Amino acid sequence: MLAPGFEDPVLASQSVFRTVMEAMARPGRIARIEAAVAPPAPMGLAAAALALTLLDYETPVWLDPLLAAVPAVGGWLTFHTGARRAAGPASAAFAFIVDAARMPGFDAFNNGTIEYPDRSTTLVVEVARLMEAEDFGLSGPGIKTTKSLSAAPLPIDFADRMAANRALFPRGVDLILTCGATLVGLPRSVYLSSAVAQTRERA
Q: Do 149 and 133 form a contact (C-beta atoms < 8 A)?
């Protein structure tokens, strides 16, 4: 039996859209999705709510191998959003990833062009832990001074990937980290450093 989508699609989509826009405008700030949705595992609530809100029949979407291996996930997305599956990560407008530690390098996705930076891929990455702690330090537009963030699991070179991504600005990918019903926005404009790098700077 196909899992349901939003009970009230219009109101729920409006609420989720406001939440994710606020999260992208304030990087590192943990937000919570209030809309109720029960997607097929292993897709989380926040990731599913984003899919229902941001995808439509014109949106190419890429699922990482763990998600793609579950027919119920692809069927649920197709039924509720009409989104078509991208041939690969480079042709996706959105990528949904649950095996965060093994996610492809950012250069595998569409990084946009100088003329059309908005055509880059947005990565929706599910993690097991998401909180305001000092694994990473964030700074940049939308952050008054600095912001601390803890998220895991992530690739061991995640801070380096984010630095290289920031160097491409205005090109580059945008990320939304999700954990159950919570999410954090990491737009391409953010500066992210690891706790090790921050300790070295203070020393």
A: yes
The residue to which tokens 């984010």 are assigned: 162
In this predicted structure, what is the pLDDT of residue 3?
Answer: 83
Contact (CB, 8 A) for 62 and 37? no
Query: Which amino acid type is present at position 83?
Result: A
Q: Provide DSSP, 70-117.
A: -HHHHHHHHHHH-PEEPSSGGG-SEEEES-GGGPPPGGGS----SS-G
The per-residue pLDDT for range 22-74, each reduced to its tens digit, is: 999 999 999 999 999 999 999 999 999 999 999 999 999 999 999 999 999 99
Q: What is the dihedral of CA 181, 182, 187, 191, to 10 degrees?
A: -150
Q: Which residues pair with 62 in a beta bridge?
A: 95
Whose tokens are 């990565």? That residue is 123
Task: Measure the CA–CA gap between 125 and 118, rounded to whole angstroms.
Answer: 19
Of the given ranges (14-18, 133-137, 159-163), which has the lowest mean pLDDT? 133-137
> Residue 119 in contact with residue 80, Cβ under 8 Å?
no
Ordered by where they begin, the domains of the chain are 9-202 (3.40.50.11310)
**3-state DSSP assignment of residue 43:** coil
Q: Sheet containing 129-139: give its strands across.
A: 147-152, 129-139, 191-194
